Amino acid sequence: MVIDLHVHTAFSDGTQTPSELMSEASMEGIDVVGITDHDTTAGWAPAEAAARVYGLGLVRGMEISCRHEGISVHLLSYLHDPYDTGLAEVVEETRRARLDRTHLIIDRLAEDYPIDMDAVLAVSGEDATIGRPHIADALVAADIVESRTEAFASILSSRGKYHVSLPTIDPITAIALIREAGGVSIFAHPRAAMRGLVVPDTAMTEFITAGLDGLEVDHRDNPPAEREVMRRLAHEHELIITGSSDYHGTGKPNRLGEHTTTDHMFSQLLERAGTRHGGVDFIQG
């Protein structure tokens, strides 16, 4: 099977509806898709309906924003209960923090550029988890930059004067909440140094000790040499190894299915989820 467990829709910072995404996945020969929008499960229901139309397997997930000692960490939660109180409350708080941060960034940008919240909402839609990619899209729409990539490399750089950090929970807390909600936790693009600082090996050990289930090893933002380091670490600790595209439609150059997860590792993910009470099921294609 061709299994891509990390894709985004317009319910966060992707550019396609779940139906459009599933249609493209079908045309590209993908068998199983993992919907992992940022800090939201709002896309699960339409993704399920579309998956059944196109005969695709669907893993319902979410990418959770975390921070460890000032370093951004993203955790992929798969097959958790979306109504679990502990995890749902934290995610809702993060969504509110994202919106507050967006207002702060826009206030700073407005001193130098013709941009406001209405411009961001015009490109994001009301149901999306608002974030910096939508600010980038507003900058593109205003002909200030040509692409999201250019926006993040310049105006929206984390090292620039317009940047505002997102207050979020520690990954160790998130790992516990995911498990309590019946889900499986995977550390997304753990060595993506091009995005900013990455956590040191000591932190990685802490996450594993806390119950981290796996590592997203095969991802374009992990340098090849680091992928092998992560693969050895995963084997040493019997962690699940995933590979994914982190596809965002036209929002990023990542291609659907450019990295995938093996059948064996996917079976391990499903088996681990099956041992935990309260999660949701994998939807067969």
Automatic annotation (TrEMBL):
<dbReference type="InterPro" id="IPR052018">
    <property type="entry name" value="PHP_domain"/>
</dbReference>
<dbReference type="Pfam" id="PF02811">
    <property type="entry name" value="PHP"/>
</dbReference>
<dbReference type="InterPro" id="IPR003141">
    <property type="entry name" value="Pol/His_phosphatase_N"/>
</dbReference>
<feature type="domain" description="Polymerase/histidinol phosphatase N-terminal">
    <location>
        <begin position="3"/>
        <end position="68"/>
    </location>
</feature>
<dbReference type="GO" id="GO:0035312">
    <property type="term" value="F:5'-3' DNA exonuclease activity"/>
</dbReference>
<dbReference type="InterPro" id="IPR016195">
    <property type="entry name" value="Pol/histidinol_Pase-like"/>
</dbReference>
<dbReference type="GO" id="GO:0004534">
    <property type="term" value="F:5'-3' RNA exonuclease activity"/>
</dbReference>
<dbReference type="InterPro" id="IPR004013">
    <property type="entry name" value="PHP_dom"/>
</dbReference>
<protein>
    <recommendedName>
        <fullName>Polymerase/histidinol phosphatase N-terminal domain-containing protein</fullName>
    </recommendedName>
</protein>
